[in-house]
Here is the input.
Amino acid sequence: MDDEPITERRAVTGPLVFGYLRHTTGGANRLTALTGCLAEYCRRHELTLCGVFTDREPAVAIRSPAFVGLLDALDLPDTYGTVIPALGHLGPRPVAAERKRRIAATGARLITVRSTRPTASDAPSVRLQHQGDI
Here is the structure.
């Protein structure tokens, strides 16, 4: 009989993702918490977090060192996407819009941990009635 563990007990590599943070305020504890948030999200969703790029300056330019590094990483083979805590980490709206466009141009997915869109689970449940039930 084979002594190898069954599939569910083997370490399986999920899709490869890279994190991106904009950390301009707060201390080391906040940065640790944000990084932990990304790691936990990836763990729960079976994604492999390969690294986290962090900008420490306000996002006034689209091509910051960390963002350029992220784009380079997204061009690596087998990279699935990037994960961010919230859309605000991409910067102010004009900067964020261009950064989203550049991420999409790599073919990678942009995964947001906290979405601003309501999901089906956020909606109140509604009981549908047929005409004959009234």
Summary: The domain at 13-112 is CATH 3.40.50.1390 (Rossmann fold). The first strand starts at residue 16 and ends at 22.
